[in-house]
Design a protein that fits this description.
Helix content is 0%, strand content 46%. The strands form 4 sheets. Strands 1-2-3-4 form a 4-stranded antiparallel β-sheet, with no helix packed on it. A 4-stranded antiparallel β-sheet has the order 7-8-9-10, with no helix packed on it. It is built from no helices and 13 strands. The chain is globular and about 40 Å long.
């Protein structure tokens, strides 16, 4: 395991990005394993060097999928919902995203490692 980020959901569960194994693991607040999701690849729900994660006010888990140049969105059960960053206009395209933050309005901020800027995305709906 190579933990690169951690977040706590509204139930007190601990989510850990395991970058080396291309997955996210979930533990209860006592450290007991609950579940894991993700595997190596480039398809929906697959990762190539996930780096960080954040949890929005709806409980969605947003994972920075660095080498796939995107952010993937999962529900609280680890089921793939959607993704953004690898498609769309050039201003929304990510290249080596390296972090993530969500403000109180639900806007998502993703620093772009290659372009040395920060992309702002609308809240997840």
């Amino acid at each position: 395991m190579n933990p690169t980020d951690v977040a706590i959901d509204s139930l007190g569960n601990i989510l850990v990005v395991d970058s080396f194994n291309d997955r996210v693991q979930k533990f209860d607040n006592n450290g007991n394993f609950i579940m894991k999701f993700g595997k190596s690849g480039s398809g929906d729900g697959e990762f190539a060097s996930p780096l960080e994660l954040a949890i929005d006010s709806s409980g969605n888990i947003l994972v920075v999928d660095t080498k796939n140049n995107r952010v993937q969105v999962f529900n609280n059960d680890g089921v793939y919902v959607s993704q953004f960053g690898n498609q769309g206009s050039i201003s929304e395209r990510l290249q080596d995203p390296v972090g993530i933050a969500i403000d109180s309005d639900g806007n998502v901020y993703v620093p772009d490692g290659r372009d040395a800027d920060v992309h702002v995305f609308s809240p997840i709906k």
